[in-house]
């Protein structure tokens, strides 16, 4: 399966790179609300026009600096941004108190800047409500009830700006999280697929090699027995094709009884005496499937690496736990080089609430021991859960 196929779920969830959402430039058109104050200066109606002009320039400069910093989380939370916001508030109140009238419209602009910086959390009401109360006091003082709409506009500009920007930020975080979850699901599916292929092909190819060697040895002296081995090779190959198709779709559930029979046959073909003992309660299908993988991997290792003459497979359990032990009298794999199959099985068993140990047996040889809950469902690796 190609990388493009694996990556398709992620690409389907990835949002467009040019979808950057609102930026500081989105709040710049609101500076047109200050045209009334500018007109007040130009017509000569404002006293001390030089001070008023410098104040308006300072207000606009601070507003532009703040709204651009507000859309970068690191800069938004920096102390410098709060200093600029406090300076903006001081300038706005100074100009409104000094000039009144059209200059009161600087308060909604101040509300926009506050909403862009303070978007969520307990700090928003602690700043918004005192700001609106102070705006109301200055407005009533300078223009009586004539500019009461400014108070409402300031309140709305703070809350609506904060709410919309916080919602946009939350949506982007959710999109990013969904993309990361999709990427994680793809990685898990890759891991599941590689494990299944290793377990399926490793076992199947080992059996085919053993039976091919047996057929080659038997052919000169017993053609019928050699043909029987060839027929077994064909059967194993067909079964492997079916299992690989099932593994690709992710719905493969192993039958423990079938796997025990296959292990017995593979061991016998390799000249290893199989001893299989089974007792205990009935098992959940998921538990049987996972134990089937343990039997398959252990039997494959015994055929390929052990050089054993005898292999015992013992399955027993209580009402709560089931234990599978596979022991051979061979040399086992080389020390310090655990196979990837056993590592993958250990991860699966651990994820299902069980344990898997492997290593030298107390009386010599090699042993693999797995223990699992009897009734605990074992989700397939990479399979989504509700």
**Structure class:** alpha+beta
Number of helices: 12
Please tell me the overall pLDDT. Answer: 80
Q: Biggest sheet: strands side by side, in what order?
A: 1-2-3-5-4
Can you write the helix and strand succession as a string?
Answer: HHHHHHHHHHEHEEHEE
**Low-confidence segments, ≥5 residues, pLDDT <50?**
1-18, 377-386
User: What kind of sheet is the major sheet?
Assistant: 5 strands, mixed
The N- to C-terminal Cα distance equals 27 Å
What is the number of E strands? 5
- β-strand amount: 5-15%
Q: Compute the gyration radius: what is it?
A: 37 Å
* Portion of residues within helices: 55-70%
Shape: rod-shaped
How are the elements arranged and paired?
Elements: H1 3-13, H2 35-42, H3 49-69, H4 73-76, H5 79-99, H6 106-117, H7 123-143, H8 148-218, H9 223-249, H10 256-269, E1 273-278, H11 285-306, E2 310-317, E3 321-328, H12 340-351, E4 355-360, E5 366-373
Parallel strand pairs: 1-2
Antiparallel strand pairs: 2-3, 3-5, 4-5
Helix pairs in contact: 1-8, 2-3, 3-5, 3-6, 5-6, 5-7, 6-7, 6-8, 7-8, 8-9, 8-11, 10-11, 11-12
């Amino acid at each position: 399966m190609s990388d493009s196929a694996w990556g398709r779920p992620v690409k389907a969830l990835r949002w467009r790179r040019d979808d950057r959402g609102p930026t500081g430039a989105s709040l710049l058109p609101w500076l047109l609300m200050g045209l009334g104050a500018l007109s007040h200066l130009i017509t000569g109606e404002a006293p001390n026009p030089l001070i008023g002009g410098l104040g308006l320039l300072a207000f606009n400069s601070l507003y532009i600096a703040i709204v651009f910093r507000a859309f970068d989380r690191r800069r938004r939370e920096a102390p410098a941004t709060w200093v600029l916001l406090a300076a903006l508030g001081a300038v706005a109140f100074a100009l409104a108190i000094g000039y009144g009238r059209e200059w009161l419209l600087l308060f909604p602009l101040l509300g926009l800047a506050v909403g862009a910086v303070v978007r969520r959390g307990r700090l928003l009401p602690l700043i918004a409500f005192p700001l609106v109360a102070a705006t109301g006091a200055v407005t009533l003082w300078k223009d009586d009830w004539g500019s009461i709409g400014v108070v409402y506009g300031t309140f709305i500009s703070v809350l609506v700006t904060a709410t919309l920007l916080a919602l946009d930020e939350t949506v982007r975080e959710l999109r990013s999280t969904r993309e990361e979850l999709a990427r994680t699901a793809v990685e898990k599916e890759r891991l599941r697929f590689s494990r299944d292929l290793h377990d399926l092909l490793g076992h199947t190819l080992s059996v085919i090699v053993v039976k091919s060697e047996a057929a080659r040895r038997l052919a000169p002296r017993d053609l019928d027995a050699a043909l029987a081995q060839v027929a077994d090779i064909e059967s194993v190959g067909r079964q492997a094709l079916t299992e690989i198709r099932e593994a690709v779709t992710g719905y493969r559930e192993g039958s423990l009884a079938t796997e025990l029979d296959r292990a017995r046959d593979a061991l016998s073909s390799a000249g290893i005496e199989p001893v299989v003992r089974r007792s205990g309660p009935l098992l959940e299908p998921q538990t049987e499937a996972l134990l089937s993988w343990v039997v398959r991997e252990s039997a494959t290792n015994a055929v390929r690496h052990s050089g054993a003459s005898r292999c015992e497979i013992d399955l027993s359990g209580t009402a709560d736990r089931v234990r599978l032990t596979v022991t051979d009298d061979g040399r086992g794999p080389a020390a310090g080089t655990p196979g990837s199959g056993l590592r993958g099985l250990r991860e699966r068993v651990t994820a299902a609430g069980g344990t898997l140990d492997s290593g030298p047996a107390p009386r010599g040889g090699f042993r693999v021991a797995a223990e699992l809950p009897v009734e605990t469902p074992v989700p397939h690796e990479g399979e989504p859960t509700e």
